[in-house]
Amino acid sequence: MNTALATTVIVLSLAVAAWCLVSAARNNAATWGHLLAAAVVELAALVQVAVAVVRLASGTKPTELATFIGYLVVSAVVLPAGAWLATLERSRWGSAILGAACVVLTVIVLRLQQVWHG
Amino acid sequence: MAERATNTGPGRVLIGVYVLFAVAAGARSAVQIATKFHEAPLAYLLSAFAAVVYLVAAIGLARSGEGGRRVALVCCSVELVGVLAVGTFSVLVPSAFPDETVWSGYGMGYGFVPLVLPTLGLLWLRRTRAVADAKS
Known about the structure:
The structure holds 2 protein chains of 2 kinds.
Chain A: H1 3-25, H2 32-57, H3 65-88, H4 92-116
Helix pairs in contact in A: 1-2, 1-4, 2-3, 3-4
Chain B: H1 10-36, H2 41-63, H3 65-92, H4 113-135
Helix pairs in contact in B: 1-2, 1-4, 2-3, 3-4
């Protein structure tokens, strides 16, 4: 896996998570700004998925292939799911959901790295 | 409306995390059961069971109402007892669990979320119930 790319996703994700959780703490609902920021993180996550798929297709395979693919799928869908829930919940808890989704994405990217390197 | 719905506000965060854990624990145990069941059958079955409880808890909270509330209460209680019992057991008799479960070490492998989640769930159920009592 590309470490620089993974680091980018993690840093962006943690930044957006911090913003969302601060907003939640200050009793603010998620705005279009939050969702746009989450969309940027999602874009980076999707680039990572694409890179991983190309690597898998070219023959490099981690030992726990099924687990790796599972994490890969979740890394692509966790932010859209969080954003959807956040738009349903127009309160501070919407921001909390989006922030939590970003934290989860961070953990998943870390796990992806671990599984890839065995 | 007698009581506050369990599927709004913080409840929605809880439901999100519950669904996530149902998927995470479920997918992981499915892979383990399919590929290396003989290594630690008890651990993998326990993880699969935990995944089902998480899913049912999420459904209970999401449906809200009297029935949903009761389902969620049972699930959260089972989880809390499960994580405390399995956690204690895995610390005392590590050989019983050759591989990790969601609940071993009090959910340490999952950042203690398995311990925090049912606690928050029970508090949330009590809180929404308290609103009902205050109104009646």
